[in-house]
Structures are given as C-alpha cells and as structure tokens.
Write a structure and sequence with these properties.
alpha/beta; Rossmann fold; two-stranded antiparallel ribbon; 26% helix; Protein-L-isoaspartate O-methyltransferase; SAM-dependent_MTases_sf; methyltransferase; PCMT
C-alpha cells in the first residue's frame, strides 16, 4: 500500500473505530476518500493525524478540516439516509461534504471563503462526487433557497445558537455540530419536531469556530 493508503487505514483503525464509530458506511467512506487531496501540498503529511488541520488559503480567515473522529461521530449520530438532502455549513475544502456525499442522496455545501469553495468544487469533481453542490456563501445564513434539509452538519463549532440554520430543517430533521457555548464544548444533536427544537449532548469535543458563528463580545462600560 502507498503511504497515504496506510495512513488512511491507521486513521480508521487507531482513531475512528476505537471511538465507537460502528456505521460501516462511514468507515468505508473514510477508507475510500483521499483526505490528503483536501489539504495544501505542504500539509499532506499531516492529513491523517488527530488534529484540526489548517487549510486556509493565506487570507485572514483561518479555516480547518476538523478532527476525523469528531466528524465521524457526529455523522453517525445524524443517521444520514441515502435519500436525505444534507446541508454542510462551512465545508472549507470539502472533506466533510465528500463524506456526506457517500451517505446521502443530495448535498449542499457552503463556504464563506470563495477560494476554498472553489477548491472544494474542484476536488469533489475530480473524485466524481456529482451529488454535491458547493456555494460560496455566509455559513451562518445557510442556504434557504434549497431548504428544507433532512440533516444539517456544522463543519466546525458555534458559539451562538444558529437560529437561521434551525429554521432550514424539515420536521424530523437533525442538526449536528460542536456547541462552544459551554465549557467544556460538546458535540450536540438538535432535532426539529412540530416547530420545536430539542437538543441532546453527544460527547465532549472541541473544534475551531465557524465564521459568522462567533460569540458577540459583550459591551463593557
């Protein structure tokens, strides 16, 4: 096996499986997708490590691929079906969107940084994942034109309640993400039912905060 193939297998065997990820569809997707293709050439040796990997394009906004274990466990909790329409909010270069494309019927992915959205489009096209549409758009706004969604995946953390995204869930829809409103931050699942929203903590987790979902600093006299 090539070095990247071995690293990919080690990521699954040493990080993902021991963290109680048992959904074989997620395991297969992580084994199939070349995570190194979603990172800058200088970062490829780090592609399969247990870290939030900086994929910024050199601009002021820092953007990351979040830890493989965190995204795997959130996707398992979301229980994505093969007919589901999924929004990936803050897709960076598209790795999470690619994983979701292996699970869902249709995927819409948004990214605030246009250069990274363009990179995501290119890589997803090269991998033949034709069921993903990538849009350069404000992460916090979602993509209401294509709502409602069965599942929304926050590809990072939020420090606020993402009300605009909640409203884009269909009845019975689920949103998963890392909520950094408390200490420690936790991965959560939010479910819409008859216009109300219930939430449940999944596991303690950390992730970089998505642009537009930062806490507004309190004014101090």
């Amino acid at each position: 096996m090539s070095g990247f193939t071995t690293a990919r297998q080690n990521m699954v065997d040493c990080q993902v499986r021991p963290s109680d990820v048992t959904d074989i569809r997620i395991i297969d997707a992580m084994l199939a997708l070349p995570r190194e293709a979603f990172v800058p050439p200088t970062q490829r040796k780090l592609a399969y490590l247990d870290l939030d990997l900086d994929v910024s394009d050199g601009g002021s906004a820092r953007r990351y691929l979040i830890k493989p274990v965190v995204i795997a466990k959130m996707l398992q909790a979301a229980d994505i079906g093969d007919a589901d329409h999924v929004l990936v909010a803050g897709c960076a270069t598209g790795y999470t969107a690619a994983l979701v494309a292996k699970l869902a019927g249709r995927v819409t992915a948004t990214e605030t940084v246009p250069a990274l959205a363009a990179k995501a489009k290119d890589v997803l096209a090269q991998l033949g994942l034709g069921n993903v549409t990538v849009r350069a758009a404000d992460v916090a706004a979602g993509d209401p034109a294509n709502a409602p969604y069965d599942v929304i995946v926050l590809d990072g953390a939020t420090e606020i309640t993402p009300e605009h995204l909640y409203q884009q869930l269909r009845d019975g829809g689920r949103l998963v993400g890392v909520f950094a409103q408390t200490k420690p931050p936790r991965a959560m699942i939010v479910t819409r039912s008859h216009g109300d929203f219930g939430n449940r903590a999944l596991f303690d987790a950390s992730a970089p905060v998505l642009p537009g979902l930062e806490r507004v600093p309190a004014f101090v006299f």
